[in-house]
Amino acid sequence: MKRREFVTASAAAAGTSLLGLDAMAETLAKRRLSPQDEINVGVIGVGSRGQYLMRLFLRIPDVRVTALCDVYEPRFAEGREITGEDTPVYRDYRQMLDAASDLDGVIVASPLSFHGEHMVTSLERGLHVYGEKAMGYTLDDCNAIVQATRDSGRLFQTGLQYRYAPWYREAIERIRTGEIGRVTHVYGYWHRNYNWRRPVPEPSLERLINWRLYKEFSGGLLAELGSHQIDVANWIFDEVPTSVIGTGAITFYHDGRETCDNVQAVFTYPSGGTHVFSSIIGNHNVGYQLNIYGTGGSVKLTLEDGSFYYEPARANSAVPQELIERGVHTSATLSTSGDMPYRGPGLPIEIPDGQAGNPNFLAVASFVESVRNGTRPFADEQVGWNSAVTVALGNEAIRGKRYVEFADHIGTGE
Amino acid sequence: MNRLDGVSARRPAAILALLVSCLIASTHGTAAQDSLFQESRPAMGTTVEIFLYTLTRDRAAELFEAAFQEIERVEAALSTYRSTSEISRINSAAAHRPVVTDPEVFGLIVRALEYGRRTSGAFDVTVGPLVKAWGFFRGGGHRPSAAELAEARAKVGWQHVAVDSTRRSIRFLTSGLQLDFGGIGKGFALDCAARVLRRHGVDSALLGAGQSSYLAIGTPPDDRGWPIVVPDPHDPTLAVSTIQLSNQSLSTSGSDRQYFAVNGKRYSHILDPRTGEPVTGMIQVTVIAPTATDSDALSTALFVLGSKRAAQLIEEVEGSAALLITDHGEAEKIVAIQWTEGLDP
Questions:
Q1: Any chain A CB within 8 A of the CB of B86?
Q2: Buried-most residue among A66, A208, B6, B177 (CB within 10 A)?
Q3: What is the percentage of chain A residues whose pLDDT exceeds 70?
Q4: With an 8 Å Cβ cutoff, is B41 touching chain A?
Q5: pLDDT digit string (tens) for B248-274?
Q6: How far apart are CA B177 and CA A120, in angstroms?
């Protein structure tokens, strides 16, 4: 992993502003919540994702967004427009954590390379964390976040919202019952036709606003898009991969970006399963789809729905002896029908009335419920670690265009 | 009325063609570095189109993407066709318990209810069940039975939506009520997209949704405004008015396409929420207002209210103006309210 030096430096910086142990204990005691209490949330990173999450938190009764932190000042007005209040703003997250003593939790939606620092420090300050995915940029980041969560006794939920999508849950429950036989392969696609750029007011702000395009801050498409499908593959196989082979390139947009505009990675799981992931942002044809292949059928999941498909029945049967005695006919005909793609509708996953919902909202609502009740989030720090480490090692394979054994990096632990 | 050579003013595509030709003609004298770019995408149940002036095609592509992403964000929150939308969440639960929502959605609901109050129900954000009963959702139409109509009317009424501003919660006081932003959602989406474009420094753009709602940011370079043709609803070659839109919005309700006929009787696709019947006597209403949310709401409300109440409402909303074309049997009457320019003789 190439980014260890940054993580080490940031961990030291974070350490300078930690509260003493007594102060932390006092803070934790003060923040014991009852179900009726108002929950105050701060935001680190008020960009597009942070703003979207703020709206979702504000749809939950008795939740207030009471502090905003960003290094880019125009975000303050945008954030205040969303809260509808003169919400206090901070340019340094440590100032926010020092000054906003009423906080119960934080949303961390900063660029990926800062997740480790922002999440660990927030947890150490006794705050619950809703942390955007991927959980951390490096293996060290991910380990530190898991450790900080466990040491602090606070809750961590990773922003892998499809864990909360009713049609995903239904699909995986049915897969577990054997409805499509033994799952052997997951083929995940996230293709778009869009250069992934945000407008920049002046060139000096390029890396700040388009951080997703630069390796210093971003794990590229595998982190920003692939982490979701990687998580679902981990969920289906109920394990993390043992190896990955990857490749990627800048094929469409030669505009100075550093992260690939198309990546392909193949992950192998201990039980023999395979996850093939592809992200291309120069062609939209297949869009987002996650195809789960089993020995008896398939499931296709999209961002809005899902369907089951079943392999054709191949039951044999007893036939009269005379059938073969008459002889069988030979011809040169080659039938293509057996190899044509299935183009039928499939059997849609039905979600009962009243149980549908926006996965992002359901994830956030579940986090708030966990904070109120002290229950462990479904997408907890271990789920976050599993996906983020798979992303980090996948990126190592993509950047080196090589084969990476997980055991060389993570041993057999976690 | 002026004859529009070679275009049919009745057809939106032709209106747009005229608009584009006007824009191209108006680029004389433009600062050398700015060019006009255009992109359209399906959104909000129609086609949204954006024209803007900027330096390069790449810059334009980024700006279009930012604007269309904002429109998608709004649609994802407001669409009643998406079970995952915020409005679907409110509609499914608000009859059972108060539903808290975010300040933006809450603000829009309050604004829609305020239009319900100001127009005595001529604009009604809960009109959906009536629209459905008349079969207008998919462009068709049929007269519902008396029982069907009564059932639908029982589920309509903006006054049955209770809001709690302290908690930002919505509660339906009658079961079966549904919020539907078909009337102002397009305008609201344009307002949001325009805010995003302005944030990115755009000072010259025209945004349109389905040709019924337009929002102008600034003017084309060295021009008075973005030219918009209000067509004569009866004669495709004629314009009722041509105006120059600048930092304003314009919405049109009613046209020759929005009606259906039963036994020779022509029914408008716009319903009077107070009676449950299609509006008669009004052919087309165009409203100019400071925001597209306002122009959308006003054009629908005025279509229902008629010309007598229209003047009072327009005077109440600062910066608004209206042009109504009413049906008087063989003749039609054009009523201009604070509409000071561009009336074609």
A1: yes
A2: B177
A3: 89
A4: no
A5: 999 999 865 556 666 666 677 889 999
A6: 46
